[in-house]
Task: inverse folding
């Protein structure tokens, strides 16, 4: 073998080792793959690094003559062969696992692949004593033995079983998974055929690394896409749960108002039922919305709710609107619970039960601001505990926490509560301009 070919092989091995090491580092520092996938690729690239290292060390020690160096080369060739076969059987296991096989040892295909892999290992061990696969003489020169095609055939059979597994389980695998596994089957197999036919340049090492990295890309891309979809579904589920917590709270308080009117003023109660039915009929669709709605629609919720309250409280409740800007969107059932809190825990908490609610909306330089102010008794905001969803005195404030989370999840906004004992409370919703 010429010096030029030897230099090419060393360069190929160095590039392969660097790429393989980068692949291993990428997997170890990544967070977007499942635990099984991460464990598989960590093991896979660890063995791949060992595989490339055996090739690189052999190339670097090729010109070292002596029995000691010959023995070292035999160890390297043995390690190289074991790693190559193990990488192939790992692909078999991963294909079956990805296709839904929970118990590999109940799969005939996997057991067949393991049997061939075991035969391969037997040949490698037997070769240490017989030299029927390959030999390394006292001059540290490598030569193929008469049974070398048998060793290659064993590896080719496992690759063939991998291809068969892809065909049998094609309906269970995503397109990206199919591409990943096909790449790892086709590229190394083609390189192996070329290398058997044209002995000299070691193409299979670099091609194996490239195929592994391409497979990693497709597998990680596939799982990232799955995780993104799952996260969107989880976000929607959390929003639905929060919305479900808000709706019964609102309905319960409204029906409580009507119940009180039934006892105190049946005529007003009748009007209240009519107003409530109108509210439900016109706004039921928005109650289950998980995306922002026009502010004017949310404001209409508030107006109808306040009309119900006025049936009970009359002139005791004064509402003022200061709407400088209304052409924007906000999560449904965001403003109404804030107004409800201002009425029930602010204005109605006054000694005489009367007071004023002020609703403002305006567009600032970098955000839209909606505020609900009351002149009630106020409270010490230090008692708010977001981790337990309760006030420091034990009262629940689940509604405020749900509003805050919904605003954050649905439109990346935020809710701030300012209050001072004896001076009233201000709830301030801040929304990014992109939702205008």
Result:
């Amino acid at each position: 073998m010429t010096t030029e070919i030897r230099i090419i092989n060393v360069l190929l091995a160095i590039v392969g080792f660097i790429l393989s090491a980068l692949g291993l580092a990428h997997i170890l520092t990544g967070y977007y793959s499942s635990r099984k996938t991460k464990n598989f690729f960590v093991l896979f690239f660890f063995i791949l690094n060992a595989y490339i290292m055996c090739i690189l060390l052999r190339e670097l020690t090729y010109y070292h003559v002596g029995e000691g160096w010959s023995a070292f080369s035999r160890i390297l060739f043995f390690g190289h062969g074991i790693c190559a076969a193990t990488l192939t059987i790992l692909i078999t296991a991963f294909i079956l696992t990805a296709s839904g096989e929970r118990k590999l040892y109940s799969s005939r295909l996997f057991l067949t692949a393991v049997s061939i892999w075991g035969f391969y290992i037997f040949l490698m061990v037997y070769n240490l004593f017989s030299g029927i696969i390959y030999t390394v003489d006292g001059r540290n020169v490598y030569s193929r033995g008469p049974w070398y095609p048998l060793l290659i055939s064993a590896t080719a059979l496992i690759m063939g079983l991998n291809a068969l597994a892809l065909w049998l389980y094609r309906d269970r695998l995503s397109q990206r998974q199919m591409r990943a596994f096909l790449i790892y089957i086709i590229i190394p197999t083609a390189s192996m055929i070329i290398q058997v036919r044209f002995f000299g340049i070691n193409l299979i090492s670099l091609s194996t690394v490239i195929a592994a990295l391409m497979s990693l890309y497709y597998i990680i891309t596939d799982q990232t896409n799955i995780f993104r979809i799952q996260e969107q579904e989880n976000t929607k589920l959390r929003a639905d749960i929060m919305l479900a917590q808000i709706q019964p709270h609102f309905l319960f308080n409204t029906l409580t108002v009507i119940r009180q009117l039934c006892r105190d003023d049946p005529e007003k109660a009748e009007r209240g039922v009519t107003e409530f039915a109108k509210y439900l009929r016109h706004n039921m669709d928005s109650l289950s919305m998980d995306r922002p709605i026009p502010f004017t629609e949310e404001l209409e919720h508030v107006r109808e709710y306040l009309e119900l309250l006025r049936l009970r409280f009359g002139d005791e409740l004064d509402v003022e609107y200061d709407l400088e800007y209304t052409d924007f969107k906000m999560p449904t059932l965001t403003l109404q619970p804030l107004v409800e809190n201002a009425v029930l825990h602010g204005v109605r908490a006054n000694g005489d039960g009367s007071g004023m609610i002020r609703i403002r909306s305006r567009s600032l330089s970098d955000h839209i601001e909606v505020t609900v102010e009351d002149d009630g008794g106020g409270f010490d905001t230090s008692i708010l505990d977001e981790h337990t969803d309760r006030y420091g005195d034990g009262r629940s404030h689940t509604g405020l926490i749900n509003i805050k989370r919904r605003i954050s999840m649905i439109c990346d906004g935020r809710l701030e509560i300012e209050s001072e004992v004896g001076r009233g409370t201000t709830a301030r919703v801040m929304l990014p301009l992109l939702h205008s």
Q: What stands out?
A: Confidence is low (pLDDT under 50) at residues 387-396. The CA atoms of residues 349 and 369 lie 26 Å apart. The chain is about 65% helix and 10% strand.
